[in-house]
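From the shared-data thread, chain only:
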Amino acid sequence: MTAAILAAVSVFLAINGVVIYLVVKAQLEKELDVSLANLARSTAAAVNLELAGVREASSLAPKRYILDGVSFTPWTGDQDPVEGALTTPQQFWDRLQLIRDDADKYRTYGVDGGLEDAGWLLHLLGKEAILGAWIGPDPGENEAQISTLIRLANRGDVDMAVFGSEVLHRGDTSPAALVEVLRRARREIPPYIPVTTAGIWDQYLAHPELRDAVDVIYVNYYPYWFGVPIDEAMNVLAAWHDEIVTYAAGKRVIVSETGWPSSGDVIGAAVPSEENASRFFLEFVSWARANDIEFTYFSALDEPWKAKYEGPQGAHWGYRDKDGTLKPRMQLVFDGVLIDEGPPTVHIESVDLEAGEDLRGVVSGVGTNNHRVAVFLQVDGRWYTKPSFAEPVVRIAHDGAWSADVTTGPGDEKAERYVAFVVPDDFEPPAVNGMVDLPRALKRAAVAWSEVER
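Structure, as tokens:
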């Protein structure tokens, strides 16, 4: 009888909790001129979130595309969280209104200084909350961050729990210690909430033990910091991502951070500018959409306080300025503009090859990360796989370019014709060794193909 009563009470509380949440959410969506007074969250003190600015936020230009996710911090003016600046639920709420229509998921850094309220505030808007425990060199502060994030996850305020951001890159803790934190979190957090750490791609590759300790590979790609010119940035990023997908061995991969600053220092051949920042934004999102890649873009807003720690470029990573205004040409992404729209095609360039020269071509209209090119040549009326049975497909660069070594066997220099098939990356082309006709499976699997004679 006692169990039945407790079950009934639980159902009553659950139903009423949902009703309260839905009422609050409806108030926000209808943009009523009211305040959320006496809204208590668990044992937290009641807060009053005035909805000033909601109507203004809703008047932003209509968007046809919503980002998968973005990184966001609520600091304003000369506030510096490193020096102890605090935020309030009201300030977080007001800053969130500037970007509330930009993405489905929002990532924050740290769970102190007022950021512990980020999860439930994001949930009020129907957004997913990716919350992070900031791990640094101080063990005591780390424990406070870790235990707080675990508590918030158990309270239902977290959709993905991130323990540390680039901690191995900074050397703030050891790989073994980070793995232990992740294992502890996995034990103490509900199994339906992914647990991970955010790291630079090369740090993940250097530490395979991380792969086994996380539910999701949450990885940072920054061509700018590696001095890569903007013309090559997405090709390099796509190559890094291929390495990480192989490393992940089937685990989910999410781009945790990437971006390009609109101002700052030139690093190598990487030049920060508004033009390059908007170009990278459009090229990255086009690539991610074409290849079904999840991401949290860095970042939504400029953060002036970071210039002190990262150089002048640290203040200029937002696709919006510090006041929430979209920077030049950033609107293209939200308008749904994509690069390389159109039907799938593959083009083979000149077949008048010099000795040892690769066959080259260009692909368009497909996701370059989840397609490959299968190449075959014909000699004396018979077809052969190229470059080899061990390597039956070649990778497509971000800009659509591909190349294949077609002189790997005796007589290859006498080839009469070449054919290239664009196939999904999970398709295994049949081995072709002297066949008169190519297998029908190739055309059934291919999204595009091209054949040329010499």
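The two ends are 86 Å apart (CA to CA).
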